[in-house]
Amino acid sequence: MYMFDNPTEARPLLLACVKDDNSVRDKALEVLFDIDYRQGRYTSALGWNTMYLHAYPKGEGVQKMKHVRGELLHHLGRLDEALPFLEMSIRMKRDPDLKTLSLLADAYHQLSMTDKEAKTLDTIIALYGKVDSPTIEHALYIRAGQLKEQGEIKEAKRLYNNLIKGYPETSLRWGAMYNLVDIATTSGNIDKAVDILNKMAECDDLLWSTAARAYMSGIEMRDDINEFNRLNNRFKGD
Asked: Second label for 147, Cα 20 to 30 Å away, from 17, 89, 126, 139?
């Protein structure tokens, strides 16, 4: 019945199939897991997942169950338990799995495993230019911010610029540009900062356009103060 897109009616039959050991119990567990997983009932899905792995450690669906278990545990906030399964999923996949890598990076972040988070973000970013994905877009922004805080300004600039170039329509571009303004201002490249701020001031995003105008006003005020101090010191000398 589940094959006919009627999981509600199929459920009683499936539950009856998993009560006792029989030839279809493993398939019934897989289907129950699939139904609950797709409908977002992660606690229930994890229960079927656990039952399957315990009863059928060499079953046909064991690889799928192990792969998805890390995601389920992550959804439920059980990050310490999720990590080994997420890490195993990455090792099992021949090609990079961006969804799993994203969950793994988030788990490392929440568990304050900074070095492993950075390494995972770098693995995602390595796919820049090869794959078009919001996961890469967010990884670029997060990693650039980390590098900026660590004083790795050149690499941070490169990642911010790659984000703007590779994802010109993303809402993250304004945050990237704002950080580039901060980098330019700190390094004394005021003309570059003003050029970026002028572009931001014309954007449709009220938050970032307002922030850009405020930042520009601060630069202009600082210039006025510097000029006042220069003239004041000059006349004092006279």
From this structure: 89
